[in-house]
Specification:
alpha/beta; 8 strands; two-stranded antiparallel sheet; 368 residues
Length: 368
């Protein structure tokens, strides 16, 4: 049987200032890679102590070695080129647009892998994690939509589907290696599915000549191919659906109904980590499509605000979700990472740890 893992973190933690300073110094030519590595090592060890004290079931390195949740892939290949074109993404939430909002980075030649995505991260966690740990990788579907530029990329990949197939194979190979190395919890993070649940984004895709339903089918097939590389005895596979997470902002909203049946049944994973922290995620009713045996990790604790949720309200919502999925197949987590991007969300590290402790306390009350 797979471990129960009733209380977990989605992935990233707020990057300590020392890590941000060391990364900025390296980028400015005023620091060294060794100095950044030392800052990351110290931050990860401190984070693991906090996680152990909270009682969380599975550990994370906080993604401190990444410049962002998806940069492991981008940094592992050659072939991307920066442009002056802003990304088409309208952020919603507190304040204006995020700091250092990136321009579009496109595929300007055939991708060539120059290193693995996560090797240095897993090596350190194997040595220092006080218990089972997870390794996260981005969904391949994150990249063709953002990085395919007609007139340039099509010289090397005639269609977006061709680019998706190549990226899928690279990430599948990484997942296969992780499983072979004994990493027992592998999670794929997938923000792009939010475009298929948001009516405004669905209309935008249609205006660009793309069929959101056909894109959904291709996306599920690509992510299933990635997970096929991790089919091993004792490996837990998990899938996280996100609606955007940058300095407490989001870019999409909508319930899971438009994607639930095809996504939940098409992935063949052990766990679904689903955002349910606000009304933007809709109701629990789409959980009726979750297949027998799959665990739903309810993201009921927001990482976008420092205000601590009411324990009674969290318990009430777990009971509500249990109308659609048996309570023994439910678990609890924050809704997303605390810092999918370097700046992090608008809360303090102390508030972050209180949130994680709440996850653990509620999970113990519900599941023992």
């Amino acid at each position: 049987m797979k471990p129960a893992f009733k209380a977990e973190q989605v992935g990233s933690f707020l990057r300590p200032q020392a890590v941000k300073d060391a990364r900025a110094a390296l980028a400015a030519g005023k620091g060294t890679a060794a100095q950044l590595r030392a800052a990351e090592d110290a931050a990860i060890l401190d984070s693991l102590k906090h996680q152990k004290a909270s009682g969380v079931d599975v550990f994370s390195d906080g993604e401190f070695r990444r410049n962002g949740f998806q940069h492991d892939f981008i940094d592992s290949v050659e072939g991307y080129q920066a442009t002056d074109t802003p990304l088409r993404r309208i952020w919603k939430g507190p304040g204006g647009q995020p700091d250092a909002e990136a321009n579009q980075v496109v595929v300007a030649k055939r991708l060539h892998q120059i290193r693995r995505l996560t090797a240095d991260q897993t090596t350190f966690l194997k040595q220092h994690s006080p218990g089972p740990f997870k390794m996260t990788v981005p969904s391949p579907n994150q990249f063709p939509a953002l990085g395919y530029l007609p007139g340039l990329t099509d010289k090397f990949y005639p269609t977006r589907e061709d680019l998706l197939a190549h990226i899928t194979q690279i990430i599948r190979d990484e997942v296969t290696t992780l499983a072979d190395e004994g990493v027992t919890y592998i999670q794929v993070d997938a923000p792009r599915y939010s475009y298929f649940v948001d009516s405004e984004w669905r209309e935008y895709l249609r205006s660009m000549g793309q069929d959101p339903d056909a894109l959904l089918t291709g996306a599920v097939a690509a992510d299933r191919t990635v997970f096929d590389g991790a089919r091993r005895e004792g490996i837990t596979t998990a899938f996280h659906v996100c609606r955007g997470n940058n300095q407490s902002k989001w870019y999409a909203q909508g319930g899971y109904e438009p994607i639930a049946e095809e996504l939940f049944n098409g992935l063949h994973v052990d766990r679904l980590l689903l955002e349910y922290d606000t009304e933007r995620s809709g109701t629990f009713e789409p959980l009726r499509h979750v297949p027998e045996g799959m665990v739903v990790v309810l993201g009921l604790i927001s990482t976008k605000t420092g205000e601590l949720e009411s324990r009674d309200e969290v318990l009430r919502r777990i009971d509500e979700a249990a109308r659609f999925v048996p309570i023994e197949r439910l678990a609890l987590s924050p809704q997303c990472g605390f810092a999918s991007m370097p700046a992090g969300n608008m809360l303090s590290e102390e508030q972050q740890w209180r949130k994680l402790e709440l996850v653990v306390d509620v999970a113990r009350q519900v599941w023992g």
